[in-house]
Amino acid sequence: MATVGERVSGLDSLRGTTPAKPHDARAIAALAANPGCARRALMDGAGVDKDAAARHLGFPAPFGQSPFAITRGNAFEALVKADGCAELLRLLRDVLRLPIDEVAYQDVQNVGAHLRHAHTRTLFDRAARGEQGTLYDHPLLSLKIAGHTAFLEPDVVAFQHGGRFHIVEIKSFAVIDGQADPASVSAAARQAAVYVLALRTLLEELGHDPLLVAHDVVLVCPENFANRPMATLVDVRRQLAVLKRQLARMTSIDRLLAELPEGVSFDLLPGEDGAPTRSAEALAEAIQQVSARYAPDCLSTCDLCFFCRDEARRDGASDQLGRQVRDELGGVATVEEALALADGLREPAPGQEEIARLLRDAERLRRECLA
Ligand code: SF4
Questions:
Q1: Which end of the chain is more exposed for a tag (fewer CB within 10 A), N or C?
Q2: How high is the pLDDT of residue 101?
Q3: Residue 341 Cα, ligand 1 centroid: separation in angstroms?
Q4: Going by CA atoms, what residue is nearest to atom 3 of ligand 1?
Q5: Stretch 101-119: mean pLDDT, rounded?
Q6: Which protein residue's CA is at the shortest distance from atom 4 of ligand 1?
Q7: CA dihedral over 122, 124, 128, 130, signed as positive or negative
Q8: In which domain of life is the source organism classified (predicted)?
Q9: pLDDT given for residue 131 in this prediction
């Protein structure tokens, strides 16, 4: 197995002269959305700017929040945190059943950028020993991603009371009649799981029990059509398990690196003005050397989604039908192959007998229904 240094240097040379794109919590959370994709694991491990690559390939993805959504999000966060987080404390008392009226408030954001991480460590070390309830506004956490340290500047507050920490995630999507958009809730849960893992890692490094960080995170959203905040507890154990598996996979990225043909690089070769000078065709050819696992969910989580969707369509891959269908079709790589098996026009290969029988049965039922 390669050493960490060898792995980092292998990933760095894969990225080439293009500056590394630091991981933020949103990007780390998205890793857990498609853990089986080697292309994404390698590109993220190498810190490749996938957004720049997708634009250069001619497949830009419309990611990123609109200025309106960002302003709305900032205004809602300011409302929740106004007067030393008075409104937030009211919500926390309710949702965590706290018997206390007051807590200490630490605004870590006001500490100089270069000192923030060290200051955060000191504060959490003290907090893990103390009993006083304390709110931490904008602590700076870190997480190792494939040998690189990613610093996470969450717009979250970690709340400590009686030695237990809770991550608080403030989001501006509305909860209407007790229901929120499931995709937004899943994305928020995946992002909060990144903070839980980062805080658990920090406590472990400091010699404390990582399980002092609760797996229930507090999600704060506006209620109905008013801006009044409401809080709910969200269990992120499943998101944590997927995230840990994916990060472990990224640290064992050596196999993926070893399988790459000699000389493959995702370098955009930026010129003096920062614009890529490499031809889009050469970049596409290099990216296609690494297998992808496209699924429709990629459209909301990965910058390369339109590029990979186009590739999956051209290959007729069964991946484009979604993860559930792909998993059920296990071993049948293309839509054409699945249709031929269903029509009985193709003999099943060894191991495909069962899925071929199911496909023929499904096709017979479909014909009966249509008739
Ligand atoms: S869009 Fe492509 S690279 Fe990104 S996760 Fe999906 S298949 Fe992988």
A1: C
A2: 67
A3: 28
A4: 40
A5: 79
A6: 302
A7: positive
A8: Bacteria
A9: 61
- Which protein residues touch ligand 1 with a CB less than 6 Å away? 34, 37, 39-40, 292-294, 298, 302, 304-305, 308
Q: Rounded to 5 degrees, what angle do the CA atoms 35, 37, 41 make?
A: 80
Q: What's the full length of the chain, in residues?
A: 371
pTM above 0.85, yes or no: no
Q: How far is the CA of 216 from the centre of ligand 1 (A)?
A: 29
Residue 288 CA, ligand 1 centroid: distance in Å = 11
Shortest-distance Cα residue to atom 7 of ligand 1: 294
Amino acid (1-letter code) at residue 216: D
> What is the structure's pLDDT at 252?
58
Non-local (6+) Cβ contacts of 245 within 8 A are 35
Structure tokens at 278: 């490499």
- Residue 195 confidence class, pLDDT cut points 50, 70, 90: very high
Nearest CA-CA partner of 155 in 47, 102, 91, 80: 80
What per-residue confidence (pLDDT) applies to 111? 75
- The answer to whether the beta carbons of residues 160 and 98 sit under 8 Å apart is no
pLDDT value, residue 150:
82
Locate the ligand 1 atom nearest the alpha carbon of residue 298 and give its number. Answer: 6
> How far apart, in Å, are the Cα atoms of 254 and each of 17, 21, 39, 114, 182?
21, 20, 13, 32, 36
Distance 150 CA to ligand 1 centre (A): 21
Kindly report, residue by residue over 12-70, the tens digit of the pLDDT: 888 888 888 877 787 787 776 676 788 988 888 888 999 999 999 999 987 666 677 77
Listed residue (165, 174, 171) closest to 188, CA to CA: 171
Residue type, 219: L
Locate the ligand 1 atom nearest the alpha carbon of residue 40 and give its number. 3
